[in-house]
Amino acid sequence: MVQSPVLRSPVTASDRLLLEIQRAIVEGDIPAGSKISEPELARRFQVSRAPLREALARLERCHLIERLPNVGARVVTLSVAGLLSLYQLREELEGLACRLAAAHMDDQEIDELKQLLEKHLSTQRVRDGESYYQEEGDLDFHYRVILGSKNSYLINILCDELYFLVRMYRVQLGMNGPRVSRAFDEHKAILNAIANRDGELADLLMRRHISASRHNIELQLKQMGT
Questions:
Q1: What pLDDT, on the 0 to 100 scale, is given for residue 113?
Q2: H or E segment and range at residue 75
Q3: Are residues 33 and 93 in the same domain?
Q4: What is the pLDDT of residue 155?
Q5: Do the beta carbons of residue 166 and residue 78 sit within 8 Å?
Q6: For residue 150, what are the contacts with CB-CB under 8 A and spacing of at least 6?
């Protein structure tokens, strides 16, 4: 299986720092919209300014940090406008990833994807419809389907450049209530289409799935007045 460079085991101090800050932003420990203070982060993560600045530059490239005139660097905000722009692109590209995965995933990869969904269902939260939180990388259904496309450019965009921004929306404004069981059933339907080598149907189902997820997150953002 192809693996995204972003999610490989960290090698350097900068790699480890990147993953720590990345996770803190995605999970909301460093709040969305908050101003970036290099001295504060250096103290918090006990690092010098050089690796910190390298990590911040890499976070900017994956859209978790933005630089604004007269404001400086800050964590990206979660907004309806940002969600719509991101999910419009995600819907198109992940639909394409599904179509390609139906053609290029081998039987073993499809079996492993089935086992992953069984693992997701085995958690009490999913069975009871409480929440459907997927861990990153190989434990993420979407990530595995994207890798299954075997298209390096598509993998670079979805698994490197945009992956953690998408996760930020998914983790902080994720699924609960009735959407949990529906989302899981949608994953199963997408997998069945891939297993049946029906790329057109897999594409359509993924687009509908992401559109429904976008609508769910959009409602939450509007309730928050964002």
A1: 96
A2: strand 72-75
A3: no
A4: 97
A5: no
A6: 2, 100, 101, 104, 105
Cβ 48 vs Cβ 82: under 8 Å? no
At which of 49, 75, 101 does a domain end? 75
> Are 117 and 139 in the same domain?
yes
User: Cβ contacts of residue 51 below 8 Å, gap of 6+?
Assistant: 12, 13, 14, 17
Helix locations, the chain, DSSP H: 13-26, 38-45, 49-61, 80-104, 107-122, 124-127, 141-148, 152-155, 163-172, 178-195, 199-223
What does the pLDDT read at residue 5? 47
CATH value at residue 40? 1.10.10.10
**How much is the pLDDT for 184?**
87
- Taking the whole predicted model, whether its pTM rises above 0.90 is answered as no
- Whole-number Å distance between alpha carbons of 97 and 147: 8
Question: The domain containing residue 108 runs over which residues?
Answer: 80-223
Quick check: 194 and 98 in contact, CB under 8 A? yes
**Alpha-carbon gap, residue 79 to 76, rounded angstroms:** 9
Residues of the chain with pLDDT under 50: 1, 5
